[in-house]
What we know:
Blueprint: H1 4-28, H2 36-58, H3 65-80, H4 85-106
Amino acid sequence: MMSEQNFIYAILAMCGVMIAVKVIPILFCKGKIKNNFIKSFLEYVPFAVLTSMIIPEIFHSTSSVISATIGFIAAIILAYVGQSLVVVALSTTLIVFIAEQIMQWFR
């Protein structure tokens, strides 16, 4: 389980990445960015960094890797079919809770 201090560090790191990627181009680029590679890079880096920070923690956030995997797969499916972030988060939380209850029942 993630300690409270590590959780706060993770949130601060995510905030720092998001702010840096949004503010640095504003500070250093006076005109409009015309290079498609740079525009794509600046657009996708925050998602890649946040994903690389969040996915490993998913598998340590529950009492079982099985329930975490079930929730992860459910989140991917719900996001793929176009559900909103709130729906994905709440549905995945409920699915993991149900999976944990079922696993406790079989123990």
